[in-house]
Protein 1
Amino acid sequence: MNARQPTLIVGVGSPVGDDRQGWRVAELLAAQWRLPARRAARPIDLLDWLDGVSWLVLCDSCQGAGPPGSVLCWEWPRLPAVDIEFGGTHDMGLLAVCHLAERLGILPPRVTLWGIEVGTGRLGPTGDTALSPLAEAAAHHAAKQVADALQLPPARHDLAPSYPP
Amino acid sequence: MDDPRIIQVQALSRVEGEGGLYVRIEGNRIEQVELRIFEPPRFFEAFLRGRMLEETPDIVARICGICPVAYQMSAVHALERALDVTVTPEIRRLRRLLYCGEWIESHALHMHLLHAPDFLGCDSGLDMAQRWPEDVQRGLRLKKFGNQLLEVLGGRAVHPINVAVGGFYRLPRREEMDTLTDNLKWGVDASIAATRWVAGFDFPDFEQDFDFVSLSHPDEYPMNEGVIRSSRGGLWTTEQFEGEFEERHVAHSTALQAVRVSTGEPYFVGPLARVNLNFDRLSPLAQQVAADLPITWPCGNPFVSIVARGLELIHAYDEALQIVSDYRPSQPRVEVPHRSGEGCAATEAPRGLLYHRYRLDDEGRLTMARIVPPTSQNQGQIERDLRAWLPRVLDQPDADIEHSCAHVVRNYDPCISCSTHFLRLQIDRQ
């Protein structure tokens, strides 16, 4: 990574259940690697955050990418296969927002998309922000891969991790 | 004899849900026009049976991701009527605020990304974004602040979870409401700009003699309550709804179609009906903007629905700002007893009148649910519009006819996913 280039990492997800994986990756990258990471509940929020960003790194749960916990990566404009879904609510999906940003002329020059296979997903009750053990492990695995891809130094082990060692 | 000309839109785009269109033309005669809804029914009325009354608002919210508040509002009002519960004026105002949030996000999305492309010769919102980036970005921001309002008051930007029978589970703190103020102020100005923008589109000359139907309230623009009014002179209480408005099954659609019982004719619900029947109760600001537009109200041109949405967008931002400015947290909800009863209510979803009726047993469990969504009420009218529209475009190539028919459908912002009914199944065994 060129440190002079502003990089923004965005974890996409929701507050409960394993769909929170994207948020968890962003939290880990911010806490352990001190990276500029944000959480988005709706992909469309991205459109307000792109000013001055030259490398956008997106992390989201997906379905159809393999066994649960699989971590995959694509570089825009190469796109995931059509049977891999970054679905959500009726609001605009992640890929549609990227296409829209591109048409609006505000998509950063480099966009990397990380997908974490969520399987059928565990829906947690309201207020339960814990991930299932598999999703938690996958989020750590994804965070490490993202950090490696950004060619950063190893994680700051002096920071207490928020998960069992 | 020549083969009939068949025009088919296999899957309508820029509408919520899945549906298609089939037109059969013999010579110059329109033989068949069918709005085919093939999305499977989702059986919500059956899901609700046996559920406790408190679960109802969160279950019905799942009928639609664009208008969950409408389903929640019709549900809580119907259940409160069944139980003789009256909410405080403060709760009533906050329910209007929540509805403003939904109208804002739904109308801003439809105007800018779903309907405007038809007028601008674009195939999609994405196509439009490249050529009109500032207008699209304004639309997205207008929508976003509607969702933000839902998040603050409803607990979530989509499928809110804070609506209770009797009020709300929790009321926002004053400082949480304050976070909305600047965005709502921006929204008032931006919605005026958006409305002026869409009013400048080139509208086909297509005035029709519609039977417009909406709620009507003596003191306010209709959202949560009122009597049901027709532009042809009818007036009904909500309790009389099922006596005058009847849903019927048609063979080509999984969704029901509604007609007036007394006339056997379809009718028109939604923003154009609301504006036409309640123009003098729009906010003074929205009326002032309307007065400067080159459109005369009441208006019988369905293509002008996009401007009616704009006026309601101004109204919703204006009213939301007023309610947020005056907000003082108070009692979140009133007590709701568990006892038997039956009640109905109608509220105004972004797409039009939404009717619910419920019956409860002694323990507060639902034994019956009836939901009549606005899109099923508009479907017969949409087919009628297409029949009237097609002779004007028959000399065009099929692809152009498909485009223009889809535009006619999108005038109504149909939400096909709201298929809540369970079709009665009869098995005849010989």
Note: The two ends of chain A are 28 Å apart (CA to CA).
Protein 2
Amino acid sequence: MPILDDKKAVFGQIAALKTLNEGYPSFNLSNSFPSVTNEKDSLAFLVDLLKALIGFEELRDTLIDTLTFDMDNIEEELKKVLKLELKKLVSCGVDPSLPDFIKHQTIFPTATGVDVVLSKIDFTGLMFIDPQGEFGGLYYDDNTTGLSSTDFNTYLYETIQQDGTQTDWGAQTGPTPILSFQFDSVGAVNNTLNIRASAFYSNSANGKTLTDLNNDYIDSIKLFSTDKLVTNIVDTLFGSVTVKLNKTTKQLEQEAAVENVVECMLNTDETDVIDNSFFEFSNESIRTHQEIAKNRKKGIRIIKSCADLETSVSTDTLIDFSNKFKATTSKAEEKQVITDAVNNIGNQASSNAQTTDKYNIKLNFIENLIKKLTLAIVNVILSPKVIMIFALNHKIINGLSATMDGPIDFMKQNKALIQGILKGVRDAIIQVMLKKALAAIKKLVAENATALITEKVNFQKAQLLSLVGIPQNVIRIIANLK
Amino acid sequence: MSSCKSTQKAGPKNGFDLSSITSILSIITNAFKFAKTPSTPLPPPLIMVGGNLRPGLSARDIASRIISRQSQAGARQGDIFVSSNNKSEAMEVIRVEEIVNALLTEGKVDVAIPPGTPITGVGPGNYGAPVVIQGATTSFATGNGIIR
């Protein structure tokens, strides 16, 4: 068990150095660090390592810094992954130009566009949530500006409300419209979204290829914002919003299955092959998904302490955070709002616990925020703004009858995309944490090295004095043995 | 969360991968390493003279020093606050006695003298006059010692 042995050796080294430098052992390996197993999840291991090295407060501050300053870079990296995967899809096709059937009717009158059943691109039922409703702000950005919204999901919701009317996406965030959408609640197949290239992209005079359309579309959307990610994680953990939205058990089980796949993919090494078995579930796994769904539907999270403890976080806390975050105008303000929210949520989650358990519950919450950040980003990727463009490309390449049945099927058909996203996010977070861990280890080792040199000099002196007949009590003072 | 299935291996990959637990463990493990300098040798005449002045190892002395410093590590001293004897202190005495006994009765010191060690000798010459010779050893020499 080389991984387990190596992990134990690292924690053993830290324990030894801390005892030597600070005079006391500071942790118990058996129950404080769940990652000390043969599992390959490097993020979980680094979280445990930082717990041992820098403690709760610094771990929380590292997370807050990541949420404040690193999310833009992560988004940039993910957009590169999305473009690359879309390009791979397109390069499988013979002709990289826009096919006539997806062109705008004003340019190519017989073009039919691509019809997609709404539920096949909206796996989580986002389009049932009104952007301007009570919880809209928790799911949509720029949620009050209707069709002019710079958030594609808000724009799509508003398009659906304009049943039978064609609207354009692209000019909200860029120079020209890119795609045109029309929702039809009644037709040969009900609740269908018709997708076409915009008139500008359909006009061959503008020389736009399918790759241009894909790249420009990805550039036109904002993938995620920090408040949505925190909301998503808190909802995954506590079901805070789920309980109010009355999501179906089937939907929640599907979300638990997505979480299962993401965790298993995260728990692989660089040499592991992700095959189709990652998307199939044993009876035991299905039972676990059902249990998670049941608790989320109740809006609670069970934490194992002396007895099972039910914890929850109110929706008001999340709405308050989201509103304050949207009102920020600088990174410093963002950081303050995120800090307050993380502290508030931690306090609320531990409010039912005994005083002795409060610290552990807060620590557990911070750990989960870090570990589930990748999952939250995948959940955002699984929203219509990203699924739509993949569904469109699948139909163009594989034929109009090609479909993706739910998020697990989407992940299965786009394994490389999901792997790329997980790797991108995980690497970015790991880079921050590894830097912190190495700095803390360097400090410990440097303190130990200094103490070692002093000890060596003192013992050399003591040894010399012992050879010229100096009494032991004097030698002990020189050797720093009180 | 549910358990994950075991995976097939794609074979080794070149380069560094941040997502790989083995890479992370390798970086972390290396961070603990630092170069140590060898200790300065003691002057041989001082060892010869001073060695004779040393009292030798005493299990009782060592155990008593450890027990008197237990409070520095937050360990309980004596048996004032409990009804029974302090077992950890009794254990400390046994531990040190055994270690010292092993060192004194079973420990062995091997000495290696490298070639090139300077030597000076005096002996009678052909006509009985003393002759002083100076030189250096030409091969390894070994010696045994015991710990006192």
Note: Chain A touches chain B through 59 residues (CB under 8 Å).
